[in-house]
Amino acid sequence: MKASTMAICKDLAARYPDLQSCEEAVIQAVGTLIQSYKEGGKLLVCGNGGSASDSLHIVGELMKSFVAHRPLSLEKQKALRAACGPRADYYIENLEGALPAIALVSESALTTAYMNDKEPDLCFAQQVAGIGKKGDVLIAISTSGNSTNVLYAADVARALGVHVIALSGRDGGKLKALGDINIVVPETETYKIQERHLPIYHCLCLAVENEFFGA
């Protein structure tokens, strides 16, 4: 991990002193994400309600530029020039390097069909079983740590060799037993937990982006 990446992790507790208890887990989570991306892995994210919105937010920060300039790799630029003729310059100028991430909450047609035909509480687990592979990472978000569909997704992920980063509050709930890394914010009210989840996942996104696209 770059020194500048570590500095981003350390800055979280400096800006939010009440999150100092999460610092070690955040650093571990960043390291796990970096290793997964280096090995060609991807990130899956799931949660309910406000945590579903957080899932989409995380993917939005990773699949395009967050704060760093992200030029396409030279390999992709070469492929575009070889295949796309005069359009290549436009693509290369505007397309950005991405850190592959998928929000499981975004597949409304799939999840509603599966929930109608099979078992609603397995809607995320079905997607993990379908696209998760060893070395990928799942960020499982539940403010209580007890959301059944998130628990099942984490359980299936572990079985398939997908690393589980559990993002929760209160005492971590049942999810704590399924997380390879547990980030438990020291709050008990749902909205306060969610308010602390945002700076944490912003930190994760900033740090991983810096590792791959920082100066």
In short:
The two termini are 14 Å apart.
Description of the molecule:
The structure is a single chain. The chain has 215 residues and is an alpha/beta fold. Helix content is 53%, strand content 10%. It has nine helices and five strands; from the N terminus they run ααβαααβααβαββα. The longest helix has 24 residues, at 190-213. The radius of gyration is 18 Å and the shape is globular. The mean pLDDT is 97.
The count of DSSP E runs of length 2 or more, i.e. the number of strands, is 5
The largest beta-sheet arranges its strands as 2-1-3-4-5
Main sheet record: 5 strands, parallel
> How confident overall, as mean pLDDT?
97
Going by helix content, strand content and strand pairing, the class is: alpha/beta
| Helical proportion, percent range | 40-55%
Shape: globular
Low-confidence stretches: none
Could you outline the blueprint of secondary structure elements for this entry?
Layout lengths: L2 H13 L7 H16 L4 E4 L3 H13 L11 H11 L3 H7 L6 E3 L4 H10 L5 H9 L5 E5 L6 H12 L3 E6 L12 E4 L5 H24 L2
List keywords for this structure.
alpha/beta, globular, 5-stranded parallel sheet, 215 residues, 10% strand
